[in-house]
Amino acid sequence: MKNILLYIALTIILTSCDKEKFNSDNSTQEPPKANIENLRQASYPIGAAININTLKNNVGYRNTIIKEMSSITAENAMKMNTISIGRKQYNFDDADYLVNFAQENNIRVHGHTLIWYKHTPTWVSNFSGTTEDWKTIMKEYIQDVVGRYKGKVASWDVVNEIINDNGTLRDCIWLQKIGPEYIELAFQYAHEADPEAILFYNDYGHEYSHTRRYTVNHISDSLARKGVPIHGIGLQMHTNINRSVNDLRYAIIAAAVTKLKVHVSEFDVAVNPDKKSITFTEELALKQKESYRAVFKAMMDIPENQRFGVTMWGVHDPSSWLSVNPDWALPFNDKFERKPAYDGILQGIYK
Ligand code: XIL
To answer: Where are the domains of the chain?
Structure first.
C-alpha cells in the first residue's frame, strides 16, 4: 500500500513539473536541434524494427539502417512461431542473418519477443503434459534462444502484451498451463541463459489508458522488488497524431518512476488512423513532428541510466506495418528522405 501511494505521489509530482516544462516549449520559435549528422550520433540509442527480406533486397533500406540506427529489433524473425518449428527444433536463419548484420555494422540488437499470446507454434498449441512439462518446454525454448545469442543480443522482451484492458492477466496458453507464475519463470529462465542480458516486460497502451499504464508499471515494480530479474519496461507506443503530446510524455515519465529502464520499443505515429482518403499535407507532417519531438524529449528528461532508447516500428513509411492504408508513420519517406518527423527527433534529443 505504501509503495502504491508513493508511486502515485511521484507520478503526480513528476507529471506536473513536466507539463510545465513541456508547455513552456510551445512558443512560436522553432526549438533548437541536435547538431549531429545522423541518429547514431544521438546520446541514447535510436533504432528500428527490421524486416529481413527487405534488409536483404533493398539497398536504400539497408543503407539507411547502417547510417542512422544504433539499435535494431527483428520485426518478426525472433517470434516463437518463426524460430520454433518443433520441440528442440529451430529455424534460426532470419534471426542469425539479423544478428550477423548487426555485428558487422556495430549495431545493438534487441530481441523481440520470447513469450507472447500470439504467434504460438502449432506444436505448442497441441502439446499436452503436466504443469512441470509446460515449464520444461518454456524453459527449453527460452534458454535455447537466449543462449544462442548470448553476448550478441543485448536485451529481450521476455513477455509481451500480458494484460487485458481491465488490468487482469491476459488469457494465454502459458497462463492456462502454468499459471501466473509463468511470468517470473520466463524472466528467471532468460536470466539464467544470459545473466548480462537486459530483460523487459513489453506492452502497449501506456499513453491512452490509466489502467494499462498503472498495471504494467505496478507488475514490473512488484517483480523487481521480489527479486525477479526484470530490468526494464517496454512501451510499444503505436500512436497517432491525434494523441496529445502530454499523454505521450506522461507514459514515459510514469514508467521511469519505477526506476527500471525505459524502452519506447515500437514507436510510430499514424497520420491517418481513421483510414480516410487523404494526402500527406505539410500540416499533417508538422503535427507528426510534434509527436516525435515529445517522445524523444521525454526520454531526455528521465535519468540517463534509465534511457534504454527509442525503437521505431519500421524504417521508412512503406516498411511500416501500417503501410497497407497509407499512414506515413515513420521519419523517412518512400525515398528514404528525412521527413519533418526527423527534425522532431533532432529537436527532442537536443541538450
Ligand atoms: C507485428 C508486425 O509488425 C507484423 O509484421 C506482424 O504481421 C504482426 O506483428 N505489437 C508487437 C509486435 O509486439 O510484435 C507487432 O508486430 C505489432 C504490435
So the answer is: 47-348
75 lines ligand 1 (CB under 6 A): yes
CATH architecture of 47-348: Alpha-Beta Barrel (3.20)
What is the DSSP track for 87-146? TTEE--HHHHHHHHHHHHTT-EEEEEEEEESSS--HHHHT----HHHHHHHHHHHHHHHH
Catalytic residues: 161, 266
**Residue in 72, 73, 76, 263 to alter for ligand 1 test, most ligand atoms within 8 A of Cβ:** 76
Q: What pLDDT was estimated at residue 268?
A: 98
Confidence of residue 76 (pLDDT cuts 50, 70, 90): very high
DSSP codes, 249-281: HHHHHHHHTT-SEEEEEEEEEES-TT--S----
Per-residue model confidence as pLDDT tens digits over 186-243: 999 999 999 999 999 999 999 999 999 999 999 999 999 999 999 999 999 999 999 9
Q: Is 117 in the pocket of ligand 1 (CB under 6 A)?
A: no
Strand pairing report for 261-270 and 155-160: unpaired
Task: Read off the pLDDT band of 298 (50, 70, 90).
Answer: very high
